[in-house]
Amino acid sequence: MSDMTSNADAPRSPGRPRSVRADEAIVEAALDLLAEGSTIEALSIEAIAARAGVGKATIYRRWAGKEALLLDALRRLKGVMAQPEGHSVRDDLILLVGAIGRNVDPRASKIMPCLVPEVNRSPDHFRLYQNIIAPRRQLMREVLRRGIDEGLIRADIDLEVTMALLTGPMLIQRVLRWNPELDEQTLPEQVVDTVLAGIQAR
Amino acid sequence: MSDMTSNADAPRSPGRPRSVRADEAIVEAALDLLAEGSTIEALSIEAIAARAGVGKATIYRRWAGKEALLLDALRRLKGVMAQPEGHSVRDDLILLVGAIGRNVDPRASKIMPCLVPEVNRSPDHFRLYQNIIAPRRQLMREVLRRGIDEGLIRADIDLEVTMALLTGPMLIQRVLRWNPELDEQTLPEQVVDTVLAGIQAR
Question: What are the boundaries of the signal sequence (chains A, B) (predicted)?
Fold first, then answer.
């Protein structure tokens, strides 16, 4: 899979090659069907092809199967990953935390939560979900490792627990609107500062 | 609303009064319909009555309407609230964090995530969702206030942010299985200790 289909910011132009326009129509068709309530399980290559106005062969030329197509489609929902600047560990963590659960595509709020029961039932779907979020977790892990290397963060912390502490509050607030008292604008900074205070080197 | 309908541990016995059996059948019918994929919006008192084998009047004698019935039904899904012992702030927080996202009823994993898009669209449903989780948040807030009173926790912390830090990691792990590297057994203690280290009085 190329980066092209993951790049939600790619400009549309009438001069793009026909194959790119077809790819886009296919991905859009899959997302529309999911947003309209189709489960991953019920979603078929036939239905996607029909909605996109292409033949099944066009889809299979580009993707090995439904899972590969959905990986591209669901990644597209989440837009381009935030890129840490690499100067201040605190600033980079605030950037990454601020990007959590921020979906560029409005269909995401309809699609993502309902995938949860499916993801929990099927090992294939769980792998798909992990493939989408693992690169984002890895970015955060690298910033924390940098903090340890720079002597800011204790070397004995549990990185996975620390990432859950940084990610959880923002994710429940953005996806579930967990607590109306919270301010999403200031939350990333407040979360990062409290967690850093708990894991800072003495 | 009495505590009876919220008590998932209540023993069933053939000797219970008919009205209690009817209440239970009604709540069960509502949960079954939701678990089978009905949206809150599409769920009707008619459908619940038909599934429960009672008349609509029986439902309206007990609940003012669909929202009140659903509040009881969804609370039942979550079982009895954990009760802090009131001795150690750390132990009480570990108890409350350990109870987050632990649903006694297997239908919950099918029902709860799919409510999210509905909850975000409708102010009524958002109020319903907040009515379910607010008492649990309040329990945690009281334990944190006790920690402040006892001089363990800094008085200037943001209580709502602290609660999000305590709740978020466990909720994303239990509901989304966010990170396969995390151990759900040790997570509550790890989360509480890291957060307490970040908010402890100097």
Answer: none
